[in-house]
Write a structure and sequence with these properties.
Blueprint: H1 2-30, H2 35-53, E1 56-58, E2 61-63, H3 66-77, H4 79-99, H5 101-104, H6 111-138, H7 153-177, H8 187-198, H9 203-213, H10 216-259, H11 265-279, E3 284-291, E4 296-304, E5 307-309, E6 314-315, H12 320-327, E7 331-333, H13 337-343, E8 355-363, E9 366-375, H14 384-428, H15 433-448, E10 452-459, E11 464-471, H16 475-480, E12 483-485, H17 491-497, E13 501-503, H18 516-522, E14 526-534, E15 537-546, H19 554-602, H20 607-622, E16 626-633, E17 638-645, E18 647-648, H21 650-653, E19 660-661, H22 665-673, E20 677-679, E21 695-696, E22 704-712, E23 715-724, H23 732-771, E24 775-780, E25 785-788, H24 790-796, H25 800-803, H26 808-822, H27 827-835, E26 846-851, E27 857-867, E28 873-882, H28 884-921, H29 930-960, E29 967-970, H30 972-990, E30 993-997, E31 1005-1008, H31 1009-1026, E32 1032-1040, E33 1044-1050, H32 1084-1094, E34 1099-1103, E35 1109-1116
Parallel strand pairs: 30-32
Antiparallel strand pairs: 1-2, 3-4, 3-9, 4-5, 4-6, 7-8, 8-9, 10-11, 10-15, 11-12, 13-14, 14-15, 16-17, 16-23, 17-19, 18-21, 20-22, 22-23, 24-25, 24-28, 26-27, 27-28, 29-31, 32-33, 33-35, 34-35
């Protein structure tokens, strides 16, 4: 093929060189051309190039009207200018094909091919023009032609005929060089040649005369018409070509579609190749099918140089076909295949190609393989149109290939399943374990075509494999593998890995090094072993042996695994049948015992009787030596033996076993895991501890133990503890029975406990409700009265019999408004609240209201939800408290306070003024005189009384919001030190230490200096009053939440009882029994609270009795610096 290509290229090159030589000789013989001649050469060269480029493709080249233009150039310009125009047109046409290949619809050509084509066109055009021009001149005419006479007809006819025949002869020579048929065209192609190349030749005479008769500007108009005609012919040709291509494609797709019903894979692939070959060139074609799980690629159909060849499959490598399969997308390489593959990270395999195209075959989102074509000689052999067409074929072929593969697999699987079903039916027809094992070892040989087989069963107690049955193996092998350690090779490897083991040659496999000698003696080379697994538990190994080396297929592996699964199920069924038969009688007895005790438990609520029944039943069913029921108290994390059988122990006998830890021993493990604990040998369990030192009646040590937790609703109520002097006295069935017994008894025990607690709680609740002074009313979410105490009867003047189990809505219908008023509501509002009870009405909070009848009383009402165990609202409780006396006392206290503030302030001012005058008059008296001392005492007492009045007044103003704060930025350190200076004398006198902890970077606060200083003095004064001798008082500050500063005063006083922590900041509240160094007024902390809250802060106390108190308050941080 290489030589043929060189021969046609040699022909084109020779013609081009010869034509160039002739043109050169003629040009030099004629002499230089004038401007008019060169203008004509340029015009006709452009026309020749354009009409050549706009030709129609044919099997041997391009059909166009360029020949008419070439002859027109000769007749219009003469021989030499015409030849130069023809040569220029050939060169320009080649350039146009390179630059405008894609818009014009040409397949991309290499520069080498374009140059040879230009040379060939130059040769055929020059040769044909020389031959035709020679005959034209010999018959008496000459060019340029300016007019047409009768004498010119014969020379012109000779010119046309000889030019056309010369072109046909060159075409025949070109086809011969390519070894192609000399008449390759159909009649339609010949019609195009005659119509486009022969018929238009006479028009060249008119074009030549027009060129020589008119100006060049006017000549351009018919030239444009000529170009337009060529473009129209080109458009029609392209449409015809596309139509033909589409017809071929549709025909191919139709053939492929018809082949989809073919389930013979080889015939299907052959049809696909035949249709692809019609649409695109290719030296090689192959269809590669892949197995993604095994990462294996099979070259199912390969064509090389037109012949089908065999190419072996291979594991996935880094080839182009694998790249297409992995990427699931087409790959087109138009040139430089090796270089482009290297960029993609792919290593081309085999002979280097010039162009390559591959598309994946995908069916149901699964990649089946790839269709690939390649050309070794032609670059740019494929384009996007080929990609699209081949992808369409691959998409249709994928479904057919998938169906063919499935059909082949189904046929093979049908044969295997028929055999498998026959064998499985035989194996499953018996429940005799020995017979099942014999059937399995004989059947696996028939199924796999092996010569020997064996089945091994796992003995968990001994940690070894036991040979259950074998066939074809010698007695020596049977004896050697009667008990096989799990760490040895051969079948034990299958058990260790718990997966299928396929060994093609045991002589070369290192895993069979230990048993290789035995394999030689037995005469087997290949081995297949599969674990017998039932419900994720390995029960044994099925092994089969082959006399020769055997390469296992995936289908054989699947078949053996399937048979092993069925065999495992048959073995498990046989084992289960045997165990079931043994356990059936025992199970019936246990069920009878459970049913009997269930009846007993359901009719008693006596906790002791329930526990004794459960323990007796457990002891009888298990044959335990010792038994005990331990109940636990979750809040104490302790346990207590409440019932014991068969035990003698010092702790139990002495009554010292009331409480003990429940997080130790096997009992602790059962409680923490909430699962039964079975230990066959307590000496091997590090958690075991004797149950409170208990031994059996015969003083023997316990050797095995069974503990079952009594669990109810996720909580552990206790445990049933059983022990025996025998090893492994209990098994899993005992554990299951005692577990069921514990579960059944849990409800009975809980019911008995609940009944006991309910009875106790009912009595306590009734006693509390009868003794309380508050009225208590409980409603469920429907509004039904569930509970009411005698105080409710007194408040409402209604007897309990009138309220019990009545719905509040019904009660409202009768005594309607009076009953609603007694609860502090209007009738309408109370009805609305009753409808909101299930969701929790907000109005059932704390409120105070007055009743006028039968006498005036003030009632405080508090409503709270009653929740069930799940946190859901079950009902609502209303507590009604008679606070009439409290309100009266509060009103009287406010009246006294108001009187003191308004009625004593003016007399105190007068008294202090008078004392000041007397003091001024007594300045001459000695300081130790009786008069001066009396004046000092009087002045001090009057000032304290004035301070008390001022405090009351300030508190009243703060409560009423009548004090206007003078807030300025101040440093808290300055305020603290100022207060310290006031209190220091008192502290020194009491022998106390004052400590200040104020950081330097503390931001300033926005406060009223006088009020906050009084707050600090009051808190420090309070601390000094209660801190014992030698104690320490600490004042500390720190930032709080970014916008506040916290100030704290810590003392070492007696502390504040919990019930006074919320009331300590109320007026006149003092703690009984805590008098301090001096008696206070009970107003200082109330003033502190109101002053701090007026600044937007808060104040609170943290204290425990006997451990001092910690008063804290917060103040807002100033927005600007001090003095700013």
């Amino acid at each position: 093929m290489k030589w043929l290509l060189k021969r046609d290229e040699l022909l084109m090159l020779s013609g081009g060189i010869l034509a160039g030589a002739v043109i050169t000789v003629l040009v030099f013989s004629e002499g230089p051309l004038g401007w008019g001649a060169w203008r004509g050469v340029l015009v006709f060269a452009v026309l020749i190039a354009v009409t050549t480029a706009l030709g129609l493709p044919s099997p041997s080249g391009i059909i166009s009207i360029a020949h008419m233009v070439i002859v027109s150039g000769f007749l219009a310009l003469g021989l030499v200018p015409g030849l130069i125009a023809s040569a220029g047109g050939a060169v320009l046409a080649g350039i146009i094909k390179i630059v405008l290949a894609q818009p014009l619809g040409y397949r991309p050509l290499t520069l080498r091919r374009v140059l040879f084509t230009m040379a060939g066109n130059l040769g055929v055009q020059t040769g044909g023009l020389l031959a035709g021009a020679g005959s034209f001149c010999l018959l008496g005419s000459s060019a340029p032609l300016y007019g047409l006479g009768v004498s010119d007809f014969l020379p012109l006819l000779a010119l046309f005929v000889i030019y056309f025949i010369t072109n046909l002869l060159y075409l025949a020579a070109f086809l011969w060089a390519q070894q192609r048929p000399l008449l390759p065209w159909k009649w339609a192609d010949w019609r195009y040649v005659i119509v486009l190349e022969l018929v238009p030749l006479p028009l060249s005479v008119l074009i030549a005369i027009a060129y020589n008769s008119v100006r060049i500007g006017i000549f351009l108009l018919p030239s444009a018409v000529l170009v337009g005609g060529a473009f129209t012919i080109w458009q029609a040709g392209r449409a015809r070509t596309r139509l033909q291509q589409r017809v071929r494609e549709l025909s191919t797709l139709n053939v492929v579609s018809q082949a989809l019903s073919n389930l013979d894979l080889l015939e299907l692939l052959s049809v696909i190749h035949a249709q692809v070959a019609r649409l695109m060139p290719g030296d090689d074609f192959y269809i590669a099918l892949c197995d993604l799980e095994r990462e294996f690629i099979d070259f199912a159909f390969v064509i090389e140089n037109g012949a089908r060849v065999f190419r072996p499959g291979r594991p996935f490598s880094n080839g182009l076909a694998e790249y297409v399969i992995r990427q699931r997308a087409p790959l087109l390489i138009q040139s430089n295949v090796a270089e482009m593959a290297k960029r993609l990270g792919v290593e081309p395999i085999g002979r280097e190609a010039q162009s390559w195209l591959g598309v994946p075959m995908i069916a149901e989102n699964r990649v089946l393989g790839a269709i690939c074509v390649q050309s070794y000689e032609q670059a740019d052999g494929y384009d996007e149109r080929h990609v699209e067409m081949l992808s369409t074929i691959a998409a249709q072929a994928a479904m057919a290939v998938s169906s063919a593969q499935l059909y082949g697999q189904a046929r093979q699987r049908a044969v295997e399943l028929a055999m498998l079903n026959t064998i499985s039916a035989a194996v499953s027809s018996t429940l005799d374990l020995d017979r099942v094992l014999e059937l399995i070892v004989s059947s696996v040989m028939s199924l796999m075509g092996s010569q020997k087989s064996a089945i091994f069963l796992l003995d968990e107690t001994q940690g070894a494999l036991r040979l259950g049955a074998s066939k074809g193996l010698s007695e020596g092998y049977v004896l050697a593998y009667e008990g096989l350690s799990l760490t040895e090779g051969g079948p034990a490897i299958v058990l260790q890995d718990e997966k299928l083991l396929l060994v093609a040659d045991v002589h070369s496999d290192p895993r069979f090094a230990r048993s290789r000698e035995l394999a030689v003696q037995e005469g087997f080379r290949a081995f297949a072993g599969v674990p017998l697994i039932v419900e994720d538990e390995v029960i044994g190994v099925l092994a089969t042996f082959f006399s020769d080396v055997h390469r296992f297929s995936l289908a054989e592996a699947d078949l053996l695994t399937t048979f092993a699964n069925q065999g495992a199920a048959a073995v498990a069924n046989a084992r289960l049948y045997a165990r079931t038969q043994r356990a059936l009688v025992r199970h019936v007895e246990e069920l009878s015992a459970l049913e009997a005790i269930g009846r007993e438990l359901s009719i008693t609520l006596d906790l002791d009787r329930v526990i004794n029944l459960v323990l007796d039943c457990a002891m009888q069913a298990t044959g335990a030596t010792l038994g005990a029921v331990v109940m636990i108290a979750p809040e104490k994390r302790r346990g207590r033996i409440v019932s014991c059988r068969g035990c003698t122990g010092s702790l139990v006998e002495a009554g010292e076993a009331d409480e003990w830890p429940i997080d130790v021993g096997l009992i602790g493990r059962a409680i923490s895991t909430r699962q039964p604990v079975l230990v066959e040998d307590v000496g091997q369990d590090s958690d075991y501890v004797p149950t409170l030192g208990v031994k059996s009646d015969n003083q023997q040590d316990m050797l095995s133990q069974l503990v079952a937790p009594i669990v109810c609703k996720g909580g552990v109520l206790g445990v049933i503890n059983l022990e025996s002097t025998r090893l492994a006295a209990f098994d899993s069935q005992h554990a299951a029975f005692v577990g069921h017994l514990a579960t059944q008894s849990a409800i009975a025990i809980q019911n008995a406990q609940l009944f006991q607690r309910a009875a106790e709680g009912r009595d306590r609740l009734q006693a509390v409700m009868n003794s309380t002074h508050e009225g208590i009313l409980m409603l469920d979410v429907t509004g039904r009265v569930v509970l009411a105490n005698p105080m409710i009867e007194e408040l409402w003047d209604m007897r309990w019999a009138e309220l019990a189990e009545r719905n509040l809505r019904d009660l409202l219908r009768g005594s309607g408004r009076r009953l609603a008023a007694q609860l502090g509501y209007s009738r309408e509002k109370l009805l609305r609240l009753l409808t909101q009870l299930p969701t929790g009405p907000a109005e059932l909070g704390k409120d105070t209201y007055e009743l006028d009848a039968p006498r005036r009383r003030v009632i405080e009402r508090v409503g709270t939800p009653v929740l069930d165990e799940g946190g859901h609202v079950w009902g609502w409780m209303l507590v009604l408290r008679d606070v009439t006396e409290e309100k009266e006392l509060e009103r009287m206290r406010e009246d006294v306070t108001r009187m003191i503030v308004h009625d004593l302030r003016s007399p105190l001012a007068a008294i202090l003024g008078g004392l000041e005058l007397i003091e001024n008059a007594a300045r001459e008296q000695p300081r130790d005189s009786l008069l001066v001392q009396a004046l000092d005492i009087a002045t001090y007492s009057a000032q304290r009384l004035r301070d008390l009045v001022d405090s009351l007044l300030d508190i009243s103003r703060l409560e009423a919001g009548q004090i206007k704060l003078n807030q300025q930025p101040h440093t808290l350190a300055a305020l603290v030190h100022s207060a310290i200076s006031v209190v220091s004398p008192l502290a020194d006198e009491a022998g106390l230490r004052l400590k200040v902890e104020v950081p330097d970077d503390l931001p300033p606060v926005e406060v009223d200096e006088e009020l906050i200083e009084r707050v600090l003095i009051n808190l420090l004064d309070n601390a000094v009053k209660f801190t014992p001798l030698g104690g320490r008082i600490t004042v500390s500050t720190q930032p709080e939440d970014g916008a506040f500063v916290r100030c704290s005063v810590h003392d070492a006083g007696p502390g504040i009882p919990r019930e006074y922590l919320d009331r300590i900041f109320e007026r006149f509240v003092q703690i009984p029994g805590q008098s301090g160094r001096w008696r206070g007024t009970g107003l200082g902390l109330a003033f502190c609270r109101l002053a701090v809250e007026a600044h937007g802060g808060r104040i609170w106390v943290e204290s425990e009795e006997g451990r001092g108190s910690h008063f804290h308050f917060t103040l807002p941080i100033a927005q600007c610096e001090v003095g700013g």
